[in-house]
Amino acid sequence: MDWMEASEEQMRRERQKARELRNSQWWKNRIASGICHYCGKKVAPRDLTLDHIVPLVRGGRSSKGNCVPACKECNSQKQHLLPVEWEAYLEKLRQG
Ligand SMILES: [Zn+2]
């Protein structure tokens, strides 16, 4: 897979879109269940953060398909792990 580098301009646009999404009814419905997209744990809706499956820096968009609710734990894992380590983390979650 090609490593896509997003331009500053694109990043700014997508961050703005993410802010709008976070304020939308769609997002409120999305977090109402309190389920983390990655680990499936149930947490308080206010503890869910909007996470980009494909990060913006890697060319991800703030589309509904690319934005999912993530618990704090998964979110911090994702920020600190390398992409390959994050894949391993997800794989572990899938295996239970
Ligand atoms: Zn989680």
TrEMBL record:
Top-level taxonomic group: Bacteria
Domain (HNH nuclease) ranges: 25-76
Protein name, UniProt field: HNH endonuclease
Record-linked Gene3D superfamilies: 1.10.30.50
UniProtKB keywords: Endonuclease, Hydrolase, Nuclease
Source organism of this protein record: Syntrophotalea acetylenica
GO molecular function: endonuclease activity; nucleic acid binding; zinc ion binding
Pfam families assigned: HNH (PF01844)
